[in-house]
Amino acid sequence: MNITVKNEKLNKWIQEVSEMCQPDDIYVCNGSKEEYDNMIKKLIESGIAIPLKKRPNSFLFRSDPSDVARVEDNTYISTPTQDKAGPTNNWIAPEELKKTMRDLYKGCMKGRTMYVIPFSMGPIGSPISKIGIEISDSPYVVVNMHIMTRVSDRVLELLGSEGDFIPCLHSIGAPLAEGQEDSKWPCAPIEQKYISHFPEENLIWSYGSGYGGNALLGKKCLALRIASAMARRESWMAEHMLILRLTSPEGKQYHIAAAFPSACGKTNLAMMQPSIPDWKCECVGDDIAWMKIGPDGRLYAINPENGFFGVAPGTSYETNPMAMDSLKENVIFTNCALTDEGDVWWEGMDGDVPTHTIDWKGNDWTPESTTDAAHPNARFTAPASQCPVICEDWEKPEGVPIDIFIFGGRRSTVIPLVHEAFNWDHGVFLGSTAASETTAANIGAVGNLRRDPFAMKPFCGYNMGDYFQHWLDMGDKLGDNAPKVFYVNWFRKRPVGNFLWPGFSDNRRVLKWMCDRVEGKVGAVESSIGFLPNQEDIDLSGLDITPDDMKELMSVDADALNAEISDIENHFSIFGDHMPERLKQQLKEFKRRLG
Question: Each residue of 447-484: pLDDT tens digit?
Fold first, then answer.
């Protein structure tokens, strides 16, 4: 081991893992630039990393075709009883799961170095931050964790001899015999992949995958699945939410946290450039919010991450110019195509389609090819600090005060452009019933309605019925300081099929109305689903949108909503005794309002 670790718990854990996994060497990371450069050098020499001529200090990686995304079917919440994990999670009893995984871990790091990665989720030393230690045998994981978290020897200093941390154990599951040549992307077969969470022990074990959230354990594993369970115990919130700051022409700041299911424009909103003059929009975070009640009784949020782990295909200067400007240097790309000029390319990127690339599998690709050049889940890992609109307070240790919560979904009909919850309980009801029509990116028939409460269905580390209750409890604690809650639908369509609302930077017009509601500057119309804007209160200046289109955008289809009641009832029923009575009451009131 290259340095002496003073923390007793950590020393003991390193020794236990080393004896079980049997690495050739142990290296404790310090987070320095020199360390990052050395790791990259190793990865280039082994042929795994491809330097990009067109982007300084940027590299392309190609994963094994069996290892390209989160493996939800192999992701487990392991609690003493299945009831505690709830109906939305895969469950295996802790002792059974640990036995299976210990057998897989035996000798799994032979021929490799075991990296000990001390990292902070959130600014180091922030009262909202948490410390994790990831042990991994993947240098690809080390360089990504450098970008996505705050890897630093300062974390070990903060731990001291007795400080606590969240242990995150990861192995690609590909031991090397002496003299055996390594593969370009070592991983275990799909049936041996496990991403396991033990929320009552604050423990994460991952085996077999080297990709994304399966391997970068600070991401969804710690930041949401384990953190959500910790947050419930400790009375705070860990949410799948972007955080943005809006500043009015008068200089008033508003902070918004928003949760959307996939394919609903979350990253685009996080980095939006407003179309209304003199309003300023800044990104605090694009994916995860950790929130605690501050001394003044308000809810304060930090972005616990240090980087963006974004989906590349579809990202362009048209859809998200600020994301594109964040990717000019110091970026890790995974499963994108490689151009003949030495740059990355993906479907949906600006400009002409290249006449030839090397696709994500390493094969020649031309526009006549029948397969995609980049994998649909191809990713970029980029430092958040490189975003041109990153907020100056994005690393403020105490966080930023949240004024507004937004939920949303992709609905071609039925749900209006925006509505406001009547009160906190009604807002929780809106979040708990959030739904999207499936797209080509989802599994299942296109157009089916899929409930994804709070956009947390794959990420809640305990029974979601209890999670709904936690939201109600937090509202009780916040009282009058609770943020206002809104629901948006950018995707309403005309009967002929094209979108009624322009979206992207024009979404700012809807956010301005929300801010005006917070200030009490504008009124609203009461409807069966919540408060709707007065038509004149949404700024449409410069927009080519007809009064009829606006009327359609804001219409509420009571018959269609009535037809969805049984779906909501079925959705609530799966939580059994864990379903809060207050939400059942909200459903009754909703039915009454629909008539």
Answer: 589 999 999 999 999 999 999 999 999 999 999 999 99
Is a pLDDT exceeding 90 seen at residue 2?
Answer: no
Q: Look up tokens 């990296």; give the residue.
A: 115
| 3-state SS class at 559 | helix
Using left for φ > 0, alpha for ψ between -120 and 50, and beta otherwise, residue 110 falls in: beta
Catalytic entry in 168, 221, 264, 460: 264
Beta 75-77 vs 299-302: how paired, if at all? Answer: unpaired
d(C-alpha 405, C-alpha 488), whole Å: 11
Q: Are 96 and 272 in contact (CB under 8 A)?
A: no
Q: Which residues contact 13 (CB under 8 A, 6 or more apart)?
A: 133, 135, 167
| Domain 8-30+67-234, CATH homologous superfamily name and number | Phosphoenolpyruvate Carboxykinase, domain 1 (3.40.449.10)
Strands (E), 37-112: 50-51, 59-61, 75-77
Torsion of Cα atoms, 487 then 491 then 493 then 498, to 10°: 160
Task: Count CA atoms within 13 Å of residue 135 on its CB side.
Answer: 29
Query: What DSSP letter does each residue of 466-486 carry, written as one string?
Result: HHHHHHHHHHHHHGGGSPEEE
H or E stretch including 310? strand 307-311
Question: Could you count the other beta carbons within 10 Å of the beta carbon of residue 408?
Answer: 26
**Measured torsion, CA atoms of residues 530, 531, 534, 537, in degrees rounded to the nearest 10:** -120
- Whether the full predicted model's pTM is greater than 0.85, yes or no, is yes
In angstroms, rounded to a whole number, what is the distance separating the alpha carbons of residues 401 and 134? 31
pLDDT digits (tens, 9 = 90+) for 258-311: 999 887 889 999 999 888 889 999 999 999 999 999 999 999 999 999 999 999
157 contacts: CB under 8 Å, gap ≥ 6: none
**In contact, 292 and 127? CB cutoff 8 Å:** yes
Neighbours of 158 (CB within 10 A): 16
Show the tokens assigned to 123: 């600014």
Class of the CATH-defined domain 308-386? mainly beta
Q: Is 381 helix (H, G, I), strand (E, B) or coil?
A: strand
Query: Is 264 labeled as catalytic in the residue annotation?
Result: yes
Q: Where in the chain is the domain with CATH 3.40.449.10?
A: 8-30+67-234
Is domain 238-303+394-594 annotated with CATH 3.30.360.10?
A: no
